[in-house]
Amino acid sequence: PPDVEQLGRATWTFLHTTAAYYPDRPTPRQKANMYSLLSSLPILYPCTHCAADLGENVKSHPPDVSGRVGLSRWLCERHNEVNEKLGKPIFDCSIKKTDERWKDGPSD
Ligand code: FAD
């Protein structure tokens, strides 16, 4: 079976970075593809219990693919639900903090 921790770090890096660089005004095609990518995770993510929990989580919070600010927040909130379950620190989901971590780096 895969290393759930390493897989998790790699997947969050991919997802948060992709959200940070998602357009402010995505085309209908970009929105549809992002929706499809996120909807696929509960089906394909190779940590079965993670995928099942994520499926429940996404069912009650459908992906916000409207633009990068909404998407970054949506993803941060989903990640926080996992953090909470695992007893990890909760992340500040403001765009300032998610951009600092996943796009711009610290300002100083
Ligand atoms: P990670 O949680 O991997 O985070 C990496 C970095 O992201 C952090 O160092 C921090 O800088 C930043 N970060 C933290 N929180 C946020 C946030 N909310 N928004 C933006 N950035 C943030 N593991 C399990 O044991 N059980 C599960 O059910 C489970 N479900 C998962 C579901 C998904 C969809 C994914 C992608 C992973 C899941 N994992 C699960 C793995 C788990 O989330 C962690 O990736 C893993 O435990 C390693 O944790 P970490 O402390 O290295 O930091």
TrEMBL record:
Location of the protein in the cell: Mitochondrion intermembrane space
Keyword Oxidoreductase carried by entry: yes
Source organism: Rickenella mellea
Keyword Disulfide bond part of the UniProt annotation: yes
Signal sequence bounds: none
Keywords associated with the record: Disulfide bond, FAD, Flavoprotein, Mitochondrion, Oxidoreductase
Top-level taxonomic group: Eukaryota
Required cofactor(s): FAD
Chief location of this protein within or outside the cell: mitochondrion
Shown residues in whole-protein numbering: 82 to 189 of 193
Molecular function as annotated in GO: flavin adenine dinucleotide binding; flavin-dependent sulfhydryl oxidase activity
EC number: 1.8.3.2
GO cellular component, as recorded: mitochondrial intermembrane space
Protein name in UniProt: Sulfhydryl oxidase
Top-rank EC class of the record's enzyme: oxidoreductase
